[in-house]
Design brief:
The structure holds two protein chains of two kinds.
Chain A (H helix, E strand, L loop, with lengths): L2 H25 L3 H30 L4 H29 L6 H9 L3 E6 L11 H4 L1 H5 L2 E7 L2 E4 L12 E6 L1 H12 L7
Antiparallel strand pairs in A: 1-4, 2-3, 2-4
Helix pairs in contact in A: 1-2, 1-3, 2-3
Chain B lengths: L13 H24 L3 H28 L3 H29 L9 H8 L4 E6 L11 H4 L1 H5 L2 E7 L2 E4 L12 E6 L1 H11 L11
The chains are: A alpha+beta, B alpha+beta.
Amino acid sequence: MQELEKMLLELKDTSELMIDLAYSSLLYNNNEIAEEVMLLEAMMDEKGDEIQEMVMEEASQGGDIMRSIVVLRLQMAMEEIADAAASIADVVIRGIPQHPVLQLSLRDSDVVICRAIVLPGSDLVGKTLGEVKLSSISGMFAIAIKRGKKYIFGPDKNTRIEEGDVIIARGPEEGEEYFVDLASGKERLDE
Amino acid sequence: MKDADEIPFIDLSVREILTEMKDTSEVMVDLAYAALMFDSEDIAHEVSELEEKMDNLNYAIKIKALLAARTREDAIQLSGLLQVAAAAEAISNAAGDLVKLQSVDIERRPFLSFMLRESEETIRMTTLSENSDMVNHTIDELAVEAETGMRIIAIRRRQRWIYDPEPETKLKARDTLIVRGTKDGYERLTEFTSGRKPWPFEEV
């Protein structure tokens, strides 16, 4: 894949993570998560500018104009999504007292956000997310891990799970119980 | 500006509308990427229709929120809620912008599908074999997403499409499922859709 395409892909993944993080900041009324959304938004802007420059450069050097337009539009749509996420996080950062309906609505959603604490003795301890394949066995996709006072946002397949981690994940309601039980050690991984 | 009569009446509570807006906006983004990856005019069209639905929901929630505000505290709380609704609408607009790229001749955007395939969570397609024991079960009975991590965002059944299928939707042999999730999840799902592996039904 070319550099430009890799950058676009990163924007796509980031914009999706931002939406999940934004809703979770709202659900837990959590400033740190909301601040991370803002940081990612600034990063999206910077990368977006870079992409725009690169693509105009390509076009001016006799590149395919249509390709440039497609890239630009794609980048702008992803930025729209990122801006929307920032606007959700802004509700938390402003400290607007939350309407009770907001949380109820989020919980009613087809896509729920939940968290689970990894207790000693859980099968997850010491394994990477890639090894556990958390998403394909429970439907729950990890979007952040709180370790001690710090957060790991957008953990990847190489992120190793430790005892005491709080995993924030997004997925179907039916996956929540198994995920929480897996983290507590009540459920074991199938071999 | 629309006349008051032209704004469709939506008989849902604020809570229901907001949930609907969140869910619709998310499925729209998935469908938009699916339309680009599979070069589907049908899916692109559905996204445009949903965009209109989102417009109406956003109108409805604003009106309901304004009617509900009685005190300054109410108004402050509801402003936060409306900001979230507006964000969901903005996401749906972004999805609408994405699908407009579908009309660009596919030869002029060859890198697009290729690139989108490499995404962390991506859209894929799988056809249900007659031998799969997912056949004749509802999505809810199977809890497809909890079991595999793959969310069914659309089903192609003969000439017909079912978008964002309901939990009660029963899967049929030869259905083509458009799904979203990780690569691992897709591999797991295709073991079942192909009939190579039995579905892990809970023992009763």
